[in-house]
Amino acid sequence: MPAQFPLTRLLPGGTAARLCLSLLLLTGTVSRAKAALPVEAELVIPPAETYVIGDTIPLYWRFRNVSSEPLGFMWEGCCRLNGRLTVTLDGREIEPIPPGQALAHMFAKAERLEPGAARDFDTRLSDWVRLLRTGTYHLRGRYTGVLPDQQPQVPRGTRLWREAAETGPISVTVISVDDYLARRERQARARGLELTISGPAAVPALGTAPLTLRVVNRGSAAASFAWPDDFQLWFVAATGERVALSSAAIEGNYEAIRLPAGGSFEREIPLRAEQLEGEALGLYRLFVDLAAGTNAEPRVPSNALAIGWQLGREEVSALLTAAAVPQRPGARNAPLRLLRVYLGELGPVLDALAAAPLSAEAQALRAQLAQAAALKPVAPTPGRVNWGLKIHPDASWSWTDPRLAAAARAAASEPLQQLAGLLALRRHLGWEVVLAVEPADTVTLGQLFTLAEEFGALRTELADLVQYVAPSGSPTNRLASGAVAFAPAPLPTAVALRVKPTSSGLGIEFAARDAGATPGLFRPEELDRTPFAPLPAGGLAELLAPRPAAVLLVLARDGLRWSDLRELLEPALARGLRVHLTPWR
Asked: 232 with 149, same domain?
């Protein structure tokens, strides 16, 4: 055994004494800092007989207020900004799911921690990290009560918990779907129940197909379970990952089942296209899972059934025929919805059905969907879509996206009819269309107002006014995206400009009401009798600096050039403001 030498023997006497004193002081400081933390945190995962990747594994954050006063803090587990979960497997850290940002949480109502009390906040393990394989995962957490940029709402006098609390380590063992299915026989023997399913080779595009579940009691004693509450459907992709979690529940009336030894139980489970709607087309595995019993009996999977989710020519033809049938008022057209969900994948199939023996209504719908499928790459995700229109010096216009231009030429020959033809397809794509114009510098406002009036005939099909969208925000706010909307009439505003051409340049006047004024907005009819003053020497930037206006109204003469107005409005657009541009006549 090697000799043990105290550190003090290696140092001079005074140095050793000072070192010991420093260590004692440091230890005391750390202990006091630790004791001064107002909140303690703990991670909790409820114990379970088996956790499988794809289970909804609960993860609770438990906070205990050890101070003598109530504390407010921000709980936002869905965003994962305040909390950090460190997960390791075999000594290697698992990449966390990137945090999200919900702006509402920056100013949300604070949660309250009472003194001396613990409070649990629930999340799921899958909110924080993606588990990929069988193993024992080790977890540690860190949570900061309030971040510097958060301003939660708290009752007056309530102190905010702004410090960070760290949790102790916990572990959870999770197995993959494939490893769980490999244990089927062992689980069935331990439970005494054997599950077997049989059914179709594919999920039907229309209607339902029956999946038959049979449970046999192979044990020597009676077994109990609840139908359908104790059973779940598992759809497993080719990657081995569980999908379609919303389709896990099985429909049926509740039954308390007590199955004698040797007895069997059989029920049909309906399969419908809605259960895999939105998932990738392809081959899946399907099994039924029996939950663990109340007396620690293990959960049991059935055999895995190979099942296809495909929309080929036969399925698409049937869907087109069903979708073309007039629906009852207010009824949901499920076949049409399904075709729209998979529009990006169905383009070649829809084109191949051009000569198919479909009804006239179904062929018309097919043609529309085929056109929409060709447009899908323009904006694959439903939502707001800007259609760019380049405005030329002679006030004619053309499409900035060649894909829209090609589809427009196929729809009609006259420009406005082309636009109307494409707008008729937007519902199939889930788009909210905005016409975003890019005028040439020499185009006059009069020309732009006239063009906006022509587009106004399609106003009911558009999500917003015709507008110019600024290409970028300010250097300090990259998210800012200002826009100039061509409004046919003035709108209520707190800040208004009047702009006209003069021999020396632009004549600019303004009228403004500060936030404290009553009423705070100019009504349109007030503007004619409201006194306007010359714009400050610092220009629009100086005018807007003390005013948090979100909308700026600009009354402009027809003769102004677009380039002159755009330069004037640059400070407003850089701040992300919306400008309503209205004719001043």
From this structure: no
